[in-house]
User: What shape does this take?
Amino acid sequence: MSKLFYSRLAFTNIKKNKSIYLPYLMASTLIVGLCYILRSVTIMVERSGAKGADYMSFILGLSFWIFATIAIMILLYINSFVMKRRKKEFGLYSILGMEKRHISIVIFFEVLFTGLLSLVVGILGGALLSQLMFLLLLYIVGIPSPLTFSIPLDAVSMTVVLFLYIFAFILLYDIVSICRTNPIDLLHSSKEGEREPKARWLLALGGVLTLGGGYVLACIVGNPADALLMFFPCVMLVIIGTYLLFIAGSVAALKLMRKNRKFYYKPQNFISVSGMIYRMKQNAAGLATICILSTCVLTTLSFTVSLFIGEEDTLRSQFPRQIHVTCTDADEASGALMDQTAQDYAKSYGFTVENPFGYAALEFATVKNGSRFQTSDDGFSGPYYSISCIPLGDYNAITGSNESLASGEVLYYDSDSTEKMDSIQIGDLTYRVKKSIPSPDLFNNTIGMSRAYVIMPALEDMNHLLAEINSNTSYQRIIRYHYYFDVQGDQNQLPAFYENLRDGFNKTVPHLSYIQNIDDTRDEFYQLYGSFLFVGIFFVALFLIATVLIIYYKQITEGFDDHDRFQIMQKVGMSDREVRRTIQKQVLMVFFLPLGMAVLHMIVAYPVLCKIMTAFSMTDTSLFFICTIVTILLFAILYFIVYHRTARTYYRIVQNMN
Amino acid sequence: MTLLQVNHLKKIYASRLGGSLVQALSDVNFSVEEGEFVAIMGESGSGKTTLLNILAALDKPTGGEVLLNGKNIAAIPEGQMAAFRRSHMGFVFQDFNLLDTFSLKDNIFLPLVLARKEYREMEQRIAPIAQRLGIGDLLNKYPYEVSGGQKQRAAVARALITQPNIVFADEPTGALDSKATESLLRVFEEINREGQTILMVTHSTRAASHAGRVLFIKDGLVYHQIYRGNQSNGELYQKISDTLTVLATGGELHE
Assistant: This one.
């Protein structure tokens, strides 16, 4: 009876409970590996010193902690499953004379073995894979880099420490849960949950209301800004609604079915419905979790992938020309000055300026009330608008039109309404709308708000308006001059050209504001969305692991529970075939319910997601549509494979000994 | 009229790993007349349960045949077996085998639902049975809400509701206290008086003493049988008990 005894007992326990421990081990190993990879890639990025590295390592570092938090919850959840299945065994030990102290030692060794194994294998595997993942990240964000094999010790130690804490917590949880129950309860604990669940109509109603509320909210959001704002509340409502519906709604619905005698007293319905009532009690939370996780996987994947694929389009819409230079306090001479400066600067690099255009603009965000755009700070109510006032001269030059305006007249474009308006009011100033114009497509701004263009006779009208607005608000508005142009010449000179662009313009253009070029922005874009996609892959992997495991453990637990039931039914006169068919129907219903619900969530969320995409400057909704469909299909296939594999285990358990 | 005829029944089990063969039944012959209440007695391992499983078509014999209403049950195709058992046999088990997910009423309905009977017909059938078994008020309760004796009555109701040719009872009093045992055996006697054929396997002398005839099985053979004749339960009890003593000590029977 030495220490060796306990460790050997722990070892045989793990071996004996292979069907429970193997998936658990695989999952914890995978999670350790993923954590390590994420951490080590972060560190490798940090050390690579590449352009945008600090930016990327920030995103990756932040995601690491979110990832770790979710991983902890998943591991704890799975562990509680494992413990539930094993309580009977521990009960037997204490009947046989082991004290709780001794059982705790056995549990300690079990956790030690599983923990060590998953840490070692996880980190080793992670070390190998992390190089590949690092290359993948560099490839995604478009940074060329030679492969250098490295195992950052920081990452190793961090992962080890993190998971030592996690496993210590798991151990504590297990020991406390063993100590708090007495041996008889331990022996019987896997038989718990025989009492019929009550139908909680109020909760069910709450579920319908919250889910419906979330759906309705998602359907009625108007513009992308609202969509971004409402997305989180929507998600919360839907999550709460999903849980309530699965937990209370399912039981309530099944009880309603039971009340319908014609439906209920048919062989398959009879057994399925009564069985499901019980099943739902034990599994509702798990199924709801599968549903939410599946939705997470679907959303994350389709969103990041389409953002990534759609990047070039987004850039194009943001950059009508290669370079965008702005200055503030624009006056009549700004255009000519910009032109001249651009020419001179380009010439010094042997470049020529192509397709330049520019315009002065008074731009601000406001609230539209009927035909009035509010300019004071107080009392916002109504749709948010981004409004741009542009002088007629610039408008005519850019669009090649030949409009004319008398004083007090404007040309008007409204992205949200085609309704003809005679006049509009900005603050206290009223303008007569001479004509509604189509969207002057060239001015693309990135924020997905409703937009209005007001073309004014001259710059001085805009200055007049500016003075009026600024007298009403605490925040001072300005008139900018936007100048866009392409350059042509030796591409090798381009980085230097971009590098010194600001200095070049600063010499002659006063009040120079921001300067952007498409190539640098593209790099930033790729770094940002590439990092998102990269992190997205990790989260998808994590969610998938959780989903698969929950399905697997559910199947096993159900199998043990259903074994007895189906045996009785066979004795009473149910044929093998009927049993098989009933089982099949029931299992299908249980496991495809979450998937169906997740797809429903996706369908409802799709319009909102589309709007949010536009807020991310991504307007290609057909691409997003394809991405969504493909992810749903892939996910459904994967789900089916997992279901199929685990269903076999389930049948084996149920049919066993019959 | 002979309802159940058992001829030269033989059952040999091969142990799991192949090796040794175990002979559970060597040559069992007996018959049950319609309206009889027969108890089969024997010690643990005597082959009682094997016999019942074969009679109930849950298990296949190695040799011999079982005729129910003159029909060899081994000849019934697999696909119709469940339906045949459902409509011709009723079962009562030691551990009740009620489903926790059903109310008592739904438990009793189970075989009828499997046979796709109309709800109205089921209602009509259950009323008199529940009445007689004294569980009329408990029908909407769940198995975990009632006592063992009440559970077993519900199980009996489930066995009777299909109006079977024969009810097989496997150690029906095994999980009951003495009071519940007594009242369950009364129920058996009563339904038997009304014409229901019952075959009960038990090792309880008290349970067997309520039967009309007692068969004794030992080493896979029907070793002896006692008819009640005009004897009271008490007299029969004494006789069974004597027989068991003889069986156990291996002496000769002095009839």
Observations:
- The domain at 35-61+76-249 of chain B is CATH 3.40.50.300 (Rossmann fold).
